[in-house]
Amino acid sequence: MAHLLKEEGDFKYIEVGEGTPIIVLHGLMGGLSNFDGVTNFFSAKGYKVVIPELPLYTMSLLKTNVKAFANYLKKFIDFKGYESVLLLGNSLGGHIGLYHTKLYPKKVKGLVITGSSGLYESAMGSGYTKRSDYEVIKKKAQYVFYDPKVATKEIVDEVYETVNDRNKLIKTLAIAKSAIRHNMAKDLPNMHTPTCIIWGKNDNVTPPEVADEFYELLPDSDLFWIDKCGHAAMMEHPNAFNKILLGWLKSRKF
Predict the structure, then answer these.
(1) What are the structural domains of the chain?
(2) Among the listed residues 17, 86, 30, the one whose alpha carbon sits nearest the alpha carbon of residue 234
(3) 0.85 surpassed by pTM
């Protein structure tokens, strides 16, 4: 990893740059390094990029759910003493950001979601019956992207290790069920936090109509598309993603 992982109190996180904090929330199978493009770009543009390591596999099974992760984020923001933050979440991270904003809207001045769960999930925690077959897991990892080459051996190895660790697999399935249980369709119309929705036109996991629904339900939202792009826009098209996000932040005067 290009950036140093800090350890303070109960938290592990990356922190780069100075300025308004952008707290980045990773997904279920997403490593912190997936956001290197975002980290390098925005830390040079007057923002402090902070990526906490979410306790997806370290909490008790009873606390392995979206609400508990949203509360963990609240504790992290309080621990750091931030008065006002921007949240950026991919996949499950987007869902955690949305749920945290529902519970604790005061400190969240802006929200960015990309490939977010919260309305619909396409088999987020299924298809692991052949988890010992490396080629099967490789295809599952490639399915996340428009260009399968983005699923490097390092990424495939990480997914393979995760699904073949019994404890992690049990918690992966628990998180997937929790994401379905914490559907936010009824909450979103009451959430007035400015929200930037950046979506891959070729997302197989959370298809384009999910982005349309987020846009319709969130009262103060803007929707942007990236062509030839799957579920992780910030990885597959980092330059386009960063350009869209910077433009949105400037338009909102963040």
Answers:
(1) 6-121+183-251 (3.40.50.1820)
(2) 30
(3) yes
